[in-house]
Design brief:
Layout: H1 2-8, E1 14-17, E2 24-27, E3 32-33, E4 36-38, E5 45-46, H2 57-78, E6 82-89, E7 94-104, E8 110-125, E9 128-143, E10 154-169, H3 175-210, H4 216-237
Antiparallel strand pairs: 1-2, 3-4, 4-5, 6-7, 7-8, 8-9, 9-10
């Protein structure tokens, strides 16, 4: 699954609307069958597909619970956006993907988008389950200059991929939703901090290394005042 994920996450997630429920959902290779995409809300394909792949009855119930849970999650952490969860059966257990997308059109001078893709493999062993999570976040930001035109526009985008693996207790089927939710929550917190440090902190350091924020005259004046102050303090000690 990891190799498939890395090959499929080079493009931002796309949004569709369920014709039956009216709710939006995200599409990717994991809910695609041919040219049709399965909605997590109604478990139907668009365009309609009679023999499309769908999860087992047990897994479909878990998928519905997960979609409700992550819909609340994205409202709490993203204050909007779109989320979708898709699960599929595997020989020994099951796997799934959690998708979250938030687009901020913002003002004329700033806009951006956040796409997170969390693929999880679950291996059930009695009352325990081993979860292997592979997460990718794609970040895109655009900030215009004072005039708000494209000539002074700054574009900053990139992606980050991380993995985590845990063995957790499963007292009932819905415990999978809570376990995956905690792992996704922890991973997104770590990745957000990493993105802030890598893409914004490093950019700030590079720009400051290339050009000082203050003009040369101000810098020289500050250095002279520091020397004078140091000289006065030294003469008092003498």
């Amino acid at each position: 699954l990891t190799e498939d994920l890395l090959a499929a996450v080079d493009q931002p997630l796309k949004v569709r609307q369920d014709a039956h429920s009216g709710k939006e959902y995200l599409v990717c290779d994991y809910n695609r069958d041919g040219d049709s995409y399965r909605s997590p809300w109604t478990n139907t394909y668009d365009p309609p597909l009679a023999d499309g792949n769908v999860p087992s009855e047990r897994l479909r119930k878990l998928e519905a619970s997960a979609n409700d849970a992550f819909s609340t999650y994205k409202d709490l952490y993203y204050e909007g956006g779109v989320s979708s969860v898709y699960l599929w059966d595997m020989d020994e257990s099951f796997a799934g993907v959690v998708l979250i997308k938030k687009v901020n059109d913002g003002t004329v001078r700033s806009k951006g988008s956040w796409d997170s893709i969390h693929v999880v493999e679950v291996l059930e062993t009695g009352r325990q389950a081993r979860y292997k999570l592979t997460s990718t976040v794609m970040l895109y930001t655009v900030a215009s200059g004072a005039r708000g035109d494209r000539q002074s526009e700054i574009n900053l985008s990139g992606s980050l991929t991380r993995q985590d693996e845990r063995e957790l207790l499963v007292e009932d089927p819905n415990a999978h939703v809570a376990n995956i939710g905690r792992m996704v929550e922890d991973m997104e917190f770590k990745m957000r901090n990493s993105l802030q440090e890598v893409y914004f902190g490093k950019t700030h350091d590079i720009v400051n290394g290339l050009r000082s924020a203050a003009d040369l005259g101000e810098t020289k004046t500050r250095e002279r005042l520091q020397r004078d102050l140091f000289g006065q303090l030294k003469s008092r000690k003498d």
